Amino acid sequence: MGDVNFFLWLAFVVFTIITLGGAIAVVTTRNLFRGTIWLMVSLFGVAGYYVLLEVPFLAAVQVLVYIGAIAILFTFAVMLTRSLTALTDRYNRPVANIVGAVALFALLMLGVILPVWYGIGQPDTTIINAAVTDTEALGAALVDKDGFVLPFEVVSLLLTAAMIGAIVIAREVEEDEKGKRG
Amino acid sequence: MDCVSLCQVVQNLGVADPSIARFIGLLIGVLLVSGVPLLTVVILIWYERKFAARIQDRIGPNRVGPFGLLQTVADLLKLLGKEDITPASADRILYNAAPILSFGSVVMIWAVIPFMYSANPPGAYVGVDLDIGALYFIAIASLGTLAIMTAGWASNNKYALLGAFRVVALLVSYEIPLVFALVIPVMLAGSMSLVDIIYAQSSMWFIFIAPLAAFMFFLSSQAETGRAPFDLIEAESELVAGFNIEYSGMKFGMFFAAEFLHVFTNGILFAVLFMGGFLGLFHELIPPLGFAWLGLKGALIYLCFLWLRNTLPRLRIDQVMGFNWFFLVPISILNVILTALVLKLMQVAGWAPTDFASATFLEVLPITVVLFAKDVIMIVMIMGRVVLEGREARAAEQQMNEDLLVTAAGD
Amino acid sequence: MIPLWLYLLVSAALFSIGTFGVLARRNGVAVLMSVELMLNAVNINLIAFWRYYTPTEINGFAFAAFVVVIAAAEAAVGLAIIISVYRSRHSVIPEEADMLKG
After folding, report:
1. By three-state DSSP, how is residue C25 classified?
2. Which domain holds residue A71?
3. Do A23 and C18 touch (CB under 8 A)?
């Protein structure tokens, strides 16, 4: 199936361009609204990787949660703080930070990617074909008492706490506001 | 399964090379899935205008073509001939990308809608039979929200931006009851694939098993499309035209068409999720009849959407949000919990089938009766509460009026 | 199939770009966006390693799902804080929220 492989590679290259290009645009753009759009583009590329890795459920969750909720939240925040979306100086110490980021990348290359590349612990293709990627298995694992039921409950609690916390923090305290602005 | 059945058809027609047959099959599939909705819009707009006219005691379009059928085509030509304006202060790229994204997000939903029965291979004619079809629909629908927000922001107009703000509030909020309503058919069918959901309804439509969820889905999808009584996105009386105020010509036309198509798509999805999709008389014997059944059911729901739109006034933004957060969301959460509990208990007790697709009518009957009764009880209790609260509110108002009268008389 | 190290390369690049954004951007919203990029890089890593080494177990998948949930919580709280700071300080630059500094 040579042609299938070709399309896999093509898709991989396209998603890489989308993801990394979008990410670079996010950290360099002046206009933050465009930044959120670029963020969505980048995260959409990540969803593409999930499809390539045969985890369609996570790809859909990625689009739903990141693009449908988180990125829209970001757009909302950008609109609310609109007067400052285009700051004249975008960066603190850009040169030092670029050097830092490149150094981090080099470190990751050395520590993680090169060992994998040189085949330390070569993956077994027979295992890959016997993979469990169905949503049913994930659902069962999340509520299995030997699985992830405790983290699942903790995460549910975290979400509730985050929701309440976000509302409390962001709510306008009317008396104070009036006093300050008056 | 996806295009396999179409490729099979092409191969049977005499195309020998399997890869060419596959290519032709894919091409036909893509054209069908994206072309059918495009053509439907022309009819939908005419139909909606006629229907609205009848409700408002008018005749509606009746000049161009028989029964005014060609009115939409004339309008389309008019829109195409108009000047294509991009405001000087607009964000050019995003401004032009928004209508495309808006329309694209609706057309993309059609990729997972199963059209008709297919015997070989067993399943259905569908763009792609995704395992996560229901989730895909929700994910794609959120792209439409994004398109409207982008349009509102990129136009660089106060009214458009206000419309965009309302989109964030309204559409994101109403996604919650929509998802919770969607969970129930998924739970009953035990699958997120829309084909599996359809086949799980072969002995009983889910609208009878989960009428409350169906109603929730109906209401929140009406809100998702941004139509009356939830049409605060473009509320003419407050925001002039909302997010699309700066758009003209065919760019406006695309938003317009996307809205109409979105409503019809929601109707079709309702038919798929709750009314058995293409299942009906002779859908196996004559597969195109299944397509007709699907269209008929979708059109029926579409009619209800239009009915709702044309008879109810627009609500205020706080009323709409309150209706969602204090009414729809709690009820839908409670509904999911109760349905899951009852279903699981019945399945453990052996009174409900674990696999709805292969269950007979008699096997499905007990769970249907129980869940239907549960929904009726819930609706009665909710309505009772609403009536009581309404009575209290009216009494308080009357008391206030009387007090005012007394003070006025005292003066 | 695409080799694992390519996924890791993309993930490392994404993580580095995100790190740069977090360290360098002045606008708080942009910093949060960069954090999202980093979390996504982590997720690509998790899923890729899971798919190539232990695909028969659900752990990698479940972890990735948890990361998504935590990213959502983080974004909500982070943006709430930024909006709150913006209200009181009229600034979205994290360095300028220094009322507690002596």
Report:
1. strand
2. 1-84
3. yes
Calculate how close chain C gets to A41, using CA atoms only, in Å.
11
Q: Please, are residues B248 and B82 in contact by the beta-carbon 8 Å criterion?
A: yes
- B210, B286: one domain: yes
Question: Mind spelling out the 3-state secondary structure of chain A?
Answer: CHHHHHHHHHHHHHHHHHHHHHHHHHHHCCCHHHHHHHHHHHHHHHHHHHHHCCCHHHHHHHHHHHHHHHHHHHHHHHHHCHHHCCCCCCECCHHHHHHHHHHHHHHHHHHHHHHHHCCCCCCCHHHHHCCCCCHHHHHHHHCCCCCCHHHHHHHHHHHHHHHHHHHHHHCCCHHHHHHHHC
Residues 113-142 of B with CB under 8 A from A: 130-132, 135-136, 138-142
* All residues at 6 or more sequence positions from A7 whose CB lies less than 8 Å from its CB, including other chains: none
**Domain tally for chain B?**
2
| Phi and psi at residue B87, to the nearest 5° | -55, 145
On whether both B16 and B111 belong to a single domain, the answer is no
Of B91, B139, B172, the CB nearest to A72: B172
Of C52, C70, C95, the CB nearest to A158: C70
Chains sharing 3 or more CB pairs under 8 A with chain B? A
In CATH, what number is assigned to the domain containing residue A6? 1.20.120.1200
**ipTM (interface predicted TM):** 0.87
Q: Which residue of C has its CA nearest to A158?
A: C73
Q: Count how many Cα atoms sit within 13 Å of the Cα of residue B146 in the half-sphere of its side chain.
A: 33
Domain end (from B81, B115, B147): B81
For residue B184, what are the domain limits?
83-410
How many independent structural domains does chain A possess? 2
* Interface touch C86/A177, C-beta < 8 Å: no
pTM of the model: 0.84
- pLDDT tens track for A81-121: 765 555 566 677 778 888 888 888 888 888 777 777 676 55
- CATH number of the domain at C4-91, please? 1.10.287.3510
Judgement on whether residues B49 and B28 belong to the same structural domain of the protein? yes
Residue in chain A lying closest to C42 (CA) = A46
Question: How is B356-375 classified by DSSP, letter by letter?
Answer: GGG--HHHHHHHHHHHHHHH
* CA–CA min distance A64, chain B (Å): 4
pLDDT band, very low/low/confident/very high, at C102 (cuts 50, 70, 90): low
Contact check, Cβ <8 Å, C14/A172: no
Q: What is the pLDDT of residues C52-94, one digit of tens each?
A: 877 777 788 888 888 888 888 888 888 888 888 887 777 777 7
What DSSP state is assigned to residue B263?
A: H
Which residues of C are less than 8 Å from A127 in CB distance?
53-56
- What are the extents of the domains in chain C? 4-91
User: Tokens for B131?
Assistant: 């395992």
Least CB–CB distance from B149: residue in A63, A72, A134: A72
Question: Chain A to chain C, count of Cβ pairs less than 8 Å apart?
Answer: 249
Best residue of B132, B183, B355 to probe chain A, by most A CBs closer than 10 Å: B132
Same domain, B44 and B62: yes
